[in-house]
Amino acid sequence: MTEFEFIYNFLVRQHDDDVLLGIGDDAAIVRPRAGYDLCFSSDMLISGKHFFADAAPEDIAHKVLAVNVSDMAAMGATPRWVLLSAAFPELDMLWLNKFCGTLFEKLSQYDISLIGGDTTKGNLTFNITIIGELPQGQALKRSGAKLGDDVWVSGQVGMAAAALDGYLGKVVFPEAVWQECRQKYLRPVPRVALGRELLLLAHAAQDISDGLAQDLGHILKASGVGAELWADRVPILPALRGCAPVEQIRAWQLSGGDDYELLFTAPEAVRAQILAAGEASGTQLSRIGKIIKGTKLRILDDAGGEIHLHKTGFDHFG
Ligand code: ADP
Ligand code: MG
Q1: Residue positions in the annotated binding site?
Q2: Burial code of 163-196, b = ≥16 C-beta within 10 A, e = fewer?
Q3: What are the structural domains of the chain?
Q4: What is the pLDDT of residues 269-287, one digit of tens each?
Q5: Helix or strand or coil: residue 139?
């Protein structure tokens, strides 16, 4: 199969009316709705680094889209269009069929159009550039956290990092726990509906990709504030608690990455509305800390003792 057979036989599909020019020209043209700002982000996945070299094509497709959609969720944006740049060692029809099957299934689930990209030969690598819409002037930035804000997190945190240790053979989990953790690692669910609900409610937000402690640190730095984080309140799959010592569980939760849950701050006054936003979007929400004066992140256990992490998160060059 040639590059152009791949592009025209696998990638060209029906798209929404807001795509004025899709795949096939030198560039794509889209028309945003009146009253919206455009929001852009890009995330790259490399074989052997972000996924195992022998990972299933369906899982890779899921993840490369999910991590990008998650960045839109973290802004409160609605994802609309993507460009996919990919390097393949070879164009294997069977592999690409599976990859594109999941990719287009997920794109249609989120009502996103694939409008362009690039295809080259090389080590298996994917980059998606995603474009979303935000009601004009609204966004969930990292810089808005205020003194006294509650710190909230969606879903359960730490399972993806536990799964990674499972894959690396460091821990063996009971089958049911392993399946749940694997699912979370391979197929994260971006919190788009929640993000949208949080517009005008949350002061600051970001998604957890590199570790809760490190990612909360980004909000603190951008906002010029400190925080208390209550480690024992961070939710996790209950059955996972019995599978490892508490220090290990905390490391998965606080320094592990790949959760793609939303971490956000909001004033106490809107607690009831936040919980309603969780219900409206079908997302479990937990209050796990408080924004305080200063610039530091203090991590406390339920007894009030301070926890010092070995590392706060993942850094490619760290
Ligand atoms: P150019 O030479 O201008 O870079 P290409 O020949 O690489 O154009 O691509 C032809 C068309 O196919 C363009 O519209 C481009 O956006 C699209 N395209 C190429 N690769 C991909 C891909 N992996 N996903 C989506 N669209 C792609
Ligand atoms: Mg090109």
Answers
A1: 26, 41-43, 50, 71, 117-118, 142, 207, 209-210, 258, 314
A2: bbbbbeeebebeeebbebbbebbbebbbbbebbb
A3: 3-135 (3.30.1330.10), 149-300 (3.90.650.10)
A4: 999 999 999 999 999 999 9
A5: coil
Which ligand 1 atom is the nearest neighbour of the CA of 22?
Answer: 14
Over the stretch 296-316, which tens digit does the pLDDT of each residue have? 999 999 999 999 988 777 777
258/227 Cα distance (integer angstroms): 22
Q: Which helix (H) or strand (E) holds 265?
A: strand 262-266
Q: Is the CB of 119 under 6 A from ligand 1?
A: yes
Among 10, 119, 124, 126, name the best residue to mutate to test ligand 1's pocket (greatest count of ligand atoms within 8 A of Cβ): 119
CA of 48 from ligand 2 middle (Å) equals 24
Q: Alpha-carbon distance 59 to 40, whole Å?
A: 24
Successive 10-residue mean pLDDT values, the chain, 318 residues: 94 90 96 97 96 96 98 98 98 97 97 97 98 98 98 98 96 97 97 98 97 97 98 96 94 94 98 98 98 97 92 73
What pLDDT is recorded for position 318?
67
Distance 89 CA to ligand 1 centre (A): 17
Report d(CA 181, CA 164) in Å as an integer: 9
Ligand 1 site, residue 175, Cβ cutoff 6 A: no
Residue located via tokens 């080590």: 123
Q: Is 182 helix (H, G, I), strand (E, B) or coil?
A: helix
| Residue 181 · residue 173 · CB < 8 Å | yes
- Ligand that lies nearest to the alpha carbon of residue 27, given by its number in the listed order: 1
